[in-house]
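Hi P.,

Sorry for the delay on this. The queue was packed all week, but I finally got your sequence through. Input first:
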Amino acid sequence: MKRLFLTLALVLSVLSVMAADIAPISNAFKGGNASSLSGSMDKEVDMALPGSSKKCNANDAVSMLNAFFGSHKPTGFTVVHHADKKENGFFVGKLPTASGEYRVNVTYRAEGDKAIIQSVRIE
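Then the structure:
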């Protein structure tokens, strides 16, 4: 019986530290594919891109990123810092493009193992 409780405690502790998967978001930035982020956007997203900043719905956020990627074709993407805290997290990445390198900050909330984007800042 002791063994069962120890096993159960171990399984629960491992599940509680699992982080949201940011790979789909990272891959979308790497490929300049904003449309693939439509299912990862929260209902309202804070967007800050060079030349514009606003709080918008998920569709507008994807449109803003599509316009950015249309003008600044990504040549890669690297996550340089990533942190999770309970149901929230953020990551910082470098986005090299044909017109220069940008710093990307994304905050998200975790929904199971999925990251739901709450804000995107590209500078």
